[in-house]
Amino acid sequence: MLRVLIVEDSAADTELILRSLRAGGFTPLYERVETAEAMRQALARQPWDVVLSDYSMPHFDAPAALALLQEHAVDVPFIVVSGSVGEDTAVAVMRAGATDYLMKDRLQRLAPAVGRAVEDAAVRHERRRLEERLLLSQKLEAVGRLAGGVAHDFNNVLTAIIGSTELLLLDTPPGAPDREELDIIRDAGVRAQELIRQLLAFSARQVLNPVVLDLNRLVKNVNKMLRRLIGEDVKLVTALAPDLGAVRADPGQIEQALVNLALNARDAMPQGGQLTITTQNVDIADGSPAVSVPPGRYVLLQVTDTGVGMDRETQQRVFDPFFTTKPRGKGSGLGLATVHGIVRQSGGDVTVESAPGAGATFRIYLPCVTAALDAVGAPAAVTAPAAGSETVLLAEDEELVRVLARKVLAQAGYRVLVAAGGAEALALAERHDGPIHLLLTDVVMPEMSGRELMRRLIERRPDVRVLYMSGYADEAIARHGVLDPGTAFMQKPFTPGVLARRVRDVLDG
């Protein structure tokens, strides 16, 4: 099917043009216009594959038609088909942007010319789409690096704020004069901690604990919570493929992505509507324009709403951090950015398809794996962290965190050797006569990374265990936030209770 807009005042000439196109193998769906207003309405009504225009008509001409097409900012081939016109006129209209120029007595050239023009337009469109996608990817990557760096530094500060406040709360009974202020400080720190987690998710620098899981089971498990979140005026429908393949991902993060998409859909349906979650297996071919992932088999998790939809400009920015169409104070602008980061870090891609008034569809593609599903049990019961008497070598370049960790571990009964960096830690270990049971080290330090420190320490003390800590995990991991098997890692900010419990867990491991 070829959508042809014909700017022509002669019905007979129009029929000759259509006959030539059909002879060339096209099936034209056409509309004929002969005034500027009629052409304007036709352009607004639907997209066109090509515009064929006579040069001169009683109330309109080809240069005016070309200018009108260019006003609409659409890349549609414009071919002049005229009875007789001078060479200078033909050159002028080509310089103005016309794709080609044909005489009506040589219409046998029309079909090949249209075919070339439509093909070239498709190539240009695809090139622009890929360029836009590349620019978006580069922009998100740059902002992600910035967000990860800010999060790393800010997490050190939050660790000291939250940890010190909790230590003070332990010594301040309920009802004491300063108790309310301490609670306010802690609550503010926890809220800031959640914001930093979202930044880390967007920047793909959070720590993931992936397992082989069934997305159908995950959707069913989170179904009840989603119904509460979206409200009674939004109908939740699921259509899950019975033969769905398995994926390797962090179930908590995928649940977070689903929740964020559901909340976004709810806000797009203020008068109610329908939210549909579907799953299916899909094959991505090499060079597929739909998604930026390698070819192969994928599991598709699709979330569709019947909301207000988005225009093209909004769709291009929808995954930008802090971009929101909500009123000031009604949203952080990190929900969809977080979804993008989670999916990208899981080796997949997320796309959006929408139009004003037509709802929105978000598609999450995750690589399909053939491994057996991992058993996912109930979380362990929370118990009070046990104290200890072992020797811990603490290496941390941030003084606020170093002071807090030393105090927490000392109060729990551990003997703590404190160093501000890798070289000082190695020197302490060299001078210390007794055993060192655990190295508690920051991942990123100026002179020596935590990994390098552990590598050099274990040459002298092969029995030492290690617990890494960091505001993000780029260097404590094998690739993009996925923990190496057996790596003990603690995300900053952490509380005194979490620190004591993780140290005990690693020592008892």
Explain this structure to me?
Helix 7 (215-230) runs parallel beside helix 8. The protein has four domains: 2-123, Rossmann fold; 126-202, Orthogonal Bundle (Helix Hairpins); 215-369, 2-Layer Sandwich (Heat Shock Protein 90); 391-507, Rossmann fold (3-Layer(aba) Sandwich). 44% of the residues lie in helices and 21% in strands. It is elongated. It contains 14 helices and 19 strands. It starts with a strand and ends with a helix. It has 509 residues and is of the alpha/beta class. Strands 6, 7, 8, 9, 10, 11 and 12 form a seven-stranded mixed beta sheet that branches. Strands 2-1-3-4-5 form a five-stranded parallel beta sheet, sandwiched between helices. It has a five-stranded parallel beta sheet with strand order 14-13-15-16-19, sandwiched between helices.
